[in-house]
Amino acid sequence: MSMRRNLSLWFLLSTAVVASLIVTVSIFYAFIIHQTIRQTRNNEEHLILAIGQQVASEPRVKKALLADEPSTSIQNYSLKISRLYHLDFVVLMDMSSIRLTHPDQSEIGKRFIGGDEKKALRGKIALSVSHGTLGKSLRGFIPVYYHKKQIGVIALGIKVTSLSNLVAQSRQQYIAALVISSLFGLLIALNLAFYLKKQLHDLEPQEIARLLEERDAMLEQSKDAIAIIDSNQRILLANIEAKKIYSREGYDVSTLVGQQIDVLIAHKEQINFNKKREQFYQQNGQDYLFSATPIIVRGNQTGYAVFLRNATEALFVADQLANTTAYASALQSQSHEFMNKLHIIYGLADLKAYDELKIYLQDIIRPEKEFAHKLALLVRNPVIASFFIGEREKFTEKKTQLKIEFLTEIPANESKKETTAFIELCRYLDHYLLQSELPDEFNLVLQFQDRDLIAVYSLTHTSALLNILENALGSFYFKQLLKENHASISLDQRHSILEINLKSPYGKDEHHECADS
User: Domain named Single cache: which ranges (predicted)?
Assistant: First the structure.
């Protein structure tokens, strides 16, 4: 099936090119033959008239016409002229159209046949095609004068069959040239068909159409903004989501194609097109995950496929997945730990070591009870409370105990944006902490002060951890996140202890915001 499809396209391309070549060459050939026939006839006409005028000026011709009698010498002269210039006849006639010479001696003394000599008898040079004793011929008539008095006419001619032979000789030459050019054109057509076939990656037209439709369907149904750009960063193709971003800037979506990528990505300095990993990018208050894939055609890079993904949604899904994974692992770990504790409790009870059992139970219950009690008493924002419960579980899974202290009550906040901003900042920090080597335990102190929510991380640090945090906090995304939410962060090293101080606006009312402005 594949071979038949390949041959069909090969045949289509070859046939189209060869047919075009044959039609073009045939038209050119017909035009050349037509021109050749006209040119041959014109040449013969000029030759006949030139020879006739030369013969008419010969004294022996004038003498023969004055004598008005046939003679052997003038007959031989006319035959000689015929042979010399490849004419079929040279006939001298008097003013009564009586032949004095003729290739057929039996016609000498008879009237000239055809009637087309009358114009010449009136003193005018004439050309015609007419029937005579030798058949149809091209004739030329030249008047002969003696002392300005016309004494006769010279008729010279070439038979049409002889003229056709001359044309046939020219035609044979053109046919040979036509065959050679057709073969050469066929070779070019086959090579061109092969080249086009390779350029199309051996695909059939219907396969190319299907691939284009599939590509368009994938682009249009994708929730990511996708744009194809060339080497000059000019947009060649964009899907619906990319056009939505463009329209939010106040432009007409029909003008997107052909624009520079700057109309979609206003801050190109934030990103690196050659970086293979996804990069955080922020524009007009919206967070994106940016990625670019180079487009390689026959070993040469011709542009990029640019992807912009909603970072908020992506991070939310990733966080949900991470929480789910952490929760499942925590359940497994807690189940194992619970069984160990249960065995210890059973053993102490079996040994009737009730005092030790009481102490052991207090050690187990007190930390969790104290944390739950403080959380319920001091944190009035359930979103923040649930967030830190989840974060604490994540660090527990990493075999690190996160001790959370509340210096003040954390009030409820009607501003969802401020709550979300604080959680995003903490989640960003926790993400990089979880990827580092951590001590067995570290502290997190939370307090609400002067309409700011303050989080202070205290932990024993290493140079590797410090480098990771400095890179994370120095990223453009995090700096932009701090700037947009009017938050601040600082690192403070005290011997081997590292403190991370995060301050974010929390609980500002309308009056306070106006006063700040």
Answer: 38-171
